[in-house]
Design a protein that fits this description.
about 180 residues; alpha/beta; seven-stranded parallel beta sheet; about 10% strand
Length: about 180
């Protein structure tokens, strides 16, 4: 376990060294490390293949490309953090539905996903997550582009959610509960 939360001076350079020298790391907390970019995620995907839990809360420079690398998508097929069970992407503002498709394809063991305050996540992205058989916990708090339609995708898509947070999602109504 390595917790570097709110160490605001941590950069991709440090992440590269961690990925090279801590091969058995299972939990990495980088919440609030605002200088981490998608290149840092590429380094994590190449070196920390035993990672089970990753917190990237408020790492606002991370993009869909970085999540693709983390998931072993594209040119990174031989890499990736395929053992990941818990992923926190809270307040990662650049992420879109494409990141969720990458998660579905590459992180098949994922049990818990926090997307709260990810404004660009939409109902369409929830279609991808509905197909994840091990996903039990999903946090969509304050995802302004999630509506009844997206919750419907989760309900009808075969998801096995036991914990769903749609608090402060103003477009979710009684229809979702039905």
């Amino acid at each position: 376990v390595l917790n570097l939360s709110l160490c605001k001076q941590i950069t991709d350079s440090s992440v590269t060294k961690i990925a090279r020298h801590f091969k058995n790391l299972e939990v990495l907390e980088l919440g609030g490390c605002s200088h981490i970019t998608s290149n840092g995620l590429l380094q994590i995907s190449m070196g920390l293949t035993k990672l089970k839990s990753l917190n990237l809360r408020s790492c606002r420079q991370i993009s869909d490309t970085g999540i693709g690398s983390l998931c072993g998508q594209g040119a990174m097929e031989s890499y990736g953090c395929h053992r990941l069970q818990h992923l926190v992407l809270q307040d990662c503002q650049k992420l879109t539905d494409q990141a969720l498709n990458n998660v579905r394809l590459g992180l098949t063991k994922l049990c818990s996903l926090n997307l709260s305050f990810c404004a660009s996540v939409t109902d369409s992205g929830l279609k991808f997550l509905a197909k994840m058989p091990h996903l039990h916990e999903l946090n969509l708090r304050s995802c302004d582009n999630v509506s009844d339609l997206g919750v419907g995708f989760l309900a009808e898509g075969g998801s096995r959610l036991t914990n769903l947070d749609v608090s402060f999602c103003e477009r979710v109504s009684d229809t979702s509960l039905a």
